[in-house]
Amino acid sequence: MKKLILIFMLLMCLVNFYAGGTEKKNSKNKNSRNEITLIKTPADLIRFAVENNSDILLAKANYSSACKNLTGTYLSFLPVINPKGGIDYSQKDGFDFKTPEAYFFGIDFMQKIPGVGNLYLNPVVLHEKDAEEYFTFSLDYRFTQSTFPFWYKWMARNPETQIPKLSKNLNELIFFETRFHIIDELLQSFKNYKGIIFALDICSKKLELCKIQAQSYKQIVENQGGSFIDYFEAEKKVTDYEKEKKELENQKVETELYIQSLTGLNCTYEELLAILGECIGVGERICVGECIAMSESIDNNVWVSSFLSDFPEWNYSFINEVKLEKTKVMKEQNQAEYLLQRENLAPVFYVEGNVSYTKQERHRINCTVGFDFSKFLNGEKLSYKTQYKEQKAVYEKQYELEKSQGIFRYNFYLESLQKKEEESALLKNEVEARKRIMDDFHKLYESRQCSRVDYLESEVLYFQALYNFILTEDEIIYYKLLLAKL
Fold it and tell me: Is the dihedral of CA 326, 332, 338, 341 positive or negative?
């Protein structure tokens, strides 16, 4: 009976454990699902990507690891004290636990000294019952110091602590740079995706138009009233547009999957299409009216304001400063590694010995002073010095190059913004003119004064101009964000 109760209790524990694990897993998936359902604007999607993108998470983890390494380096300069002691009860006539034969107490003291140095002290006190000395004190000591420490030229920064500190700063800059590039890739992908959707829409319209023309030429040829050349050319256009449409559809899927990989969205393909349709303003179905309606439903001012509130530092001036500072830190890190290597390979000065005291001999002092040249003579000195100078020259050139390129890129973005604003003004006038022409053809088509082909051609030209205007406005917003002009 007791065995059955024990087995029952074990089964209940297993069931509760499994249920608890499943509940936690479901809760995690539910939270992830809730986060996905909250994505309504491009700013929401970018915010989700910053929190879930694998490259950003890796850069953040590397920064956290660098912070821990820096803390560990500082802690390594604290003294290490290990007390030790013992009692000996062994005697010739048996064990007497009341009176010990001997006992001792000692301390291992180790202190790391800046400049690749160490201090080791080991004081020990020994008390023996029957020995003539009866009481013994001894101290083992050893002191080592590099002959080329960082402070011998009055340098204030210790390379042993400077290297992890610079590594922390470098990883922080890499995190900022990674986050900037992921956001930039997303903004560019949003524009490309919208452009592909619009191109698919236009291609579908042109394909429909060519099919109508091909059918019309076919009927004329069958009635022996036209040439085969016009019919074959129309059929060739149909084939070309079908091929173009297929290529655009492939580009659309590739862009959708690329956006999913950037954002870290763990969802189905249908859910991804719905999210992109709501955030970017275009749906998965290729329909002019739907695309326009969805594009016009997106208020750029709202999501841009939300984006700037979350990422106020996202602009070209900031990332340019990050790149320059990154090169500067790498140069300083190279110098710190050179100084540390020089300290490690320099001859080592050392003092070691022993001091002891007994009642019989009173005191005894042993001391040895010398230099250790083993690392200094291994031939590494010239190689690391040459490597340091070469890397220093590379970082100096890279800094000057990035500085000049930063000015060039800023001016390029500024000129591009001005051109896009001028282009937008022209496209706006063209859209209004194409709209009037399309409306006129629509009236003529309804009154049977023009063909359907003429009306569809005017419609395609109108939507081409409108899509170009929408994409140009997106370019203007991108450049204004980049230049911090919003």
Answer: negative
